[in-house]
Task: structure prediction
Amino acid sequence: MDPVKVGVLGLGTVGGGTVNVLQRNAEEIARRAGRGIVVTHAAARDLNKPRICSTDGITLTTDPKEVVEDPDVAIVVELIGGDTLALDLVMRAIENGKHVVTANKALIAKHGNEIFAAAQAKGVIVAFEAAVAGGIPIIKAIREGLAGNQIEWLAGIINGTGNFILTEMRDKGRDFDDVLKEAQALGYAEADPEFDVEGIDAAHKLTILASIAFGIPLQFDAAFTEGITKITREDVTYAEELGYRIKHLGVSRRTDKGVELRVHPTLIPERRLIANVDGVMNAVLVQGDAVGPTLYYGAGAGDEPTASAVVADVVDVVRVLTSDPENRVPHLAFQPDSLSDLPILKMEDVETAYYLRMQVKDEPGVLADVTRILGDKGISIEAIIQKEPEGDATQASVIMLTHKVVEKQMDEAIKQIESLKTITGEVTRIRMENLDAS
Ligand code: NDP
Ligand code: HSE
Result:
């Protein structure tokens, strides 16, 4: 049988890694797929740029449309990124009856519903394993491996750049901007690194995970997103004193009222495995009703870890090229006509525990005022520590851990605390998750 011809759009970090893996492991990949797989076409902006892969034998172009229009190309691998040109190219590839593999989480989270509908109508596959958690086969695990379960919740460190920054800052005391530059040089960061540090990239990925876990349409706009830029050295230290680590977590939970969909810095008990996932590594913890908790761990970014997921998708597509489109694994795990209309909860309705830090005047009665406000809002305190002012300073830091409360109650309590004359500046609030199996 002739080899399957692949057109790769983008020859950067992931595109270059994908060509390398497909070329280096060609023989073994053919034994798995049942057919050879060759990259015959590729597109990039600047054909004179040095590449991490060999482009020998590949027809190169600066116009990616040429690749999606080429009748020889059976599978289009979209690795350009963004959601404008990439959307046009993917839709056109589908119209042309080509299967698509992409690592583009922004594209899937924002336009996946229309892309999958078009692919379904045309009987082609759009595969996106690499879009979430780099090399970890988390889409396949949830969509297929856990298909017998009702997923109750999932929580993940799903941005490699952010986790790399937090780890380097904590372990080596390095400066935020300095570590971010290194993450960019290593090819981990998004074209706009704000996506990484402000949680947008993680929200794209969480949107995808929630859809395949709970059988709901992709709803990126409903995700709550808070980044890591405001995390201070002292919060990291106080959290550790209390037995917690701060991680940038994506959390999605099915509740009676709807689905939680939120990305924010989170205190996690340090004894949890996921609290010890460091550097560019990602991990996703999934709680199923039958299996209990399962944890998936691996590199969340980088050329070959991501290529591992892209190539696995290409192999999957080749394996089912001749199968009946009606009997394939659905794009979003559930049959398209069986998606649920469970709403996404507003953040103000989400219930979590909190870490609070505030600067207080070192005077009698200050703590009583704060605890009264919390008590009036039904917020009970689990732990409290006070750091006495150093030297001539008159301000003490008070750190509190609370039990679970609805976010709206906490918003109101914080507003009242900040209005006290004895409190200086803003109250720092970091949400907490126990992540136990109960
Ligand atoms: P890069 O910036 O390294 O690569 C993008 C590639 O697209 C470059 O080769 C660039 O060409 C090419 N390109 C951009 N615009 C055009 C255009 N108009 N016409 C033709 N080619 C174009 O990005 P990454 O490889 O890092 O990311 C690609 C995708 O993979 C993104 O969706 C990203 O979110 C996703 N992803 C990235 C991961 C990572 O670790 N980097 C991990 C998981 C997913 P040129 O090189 O000539 O500039
Ligand atoms: N910028 C992303 C990250 C790439 O750092 O996780 C992988 O999706």
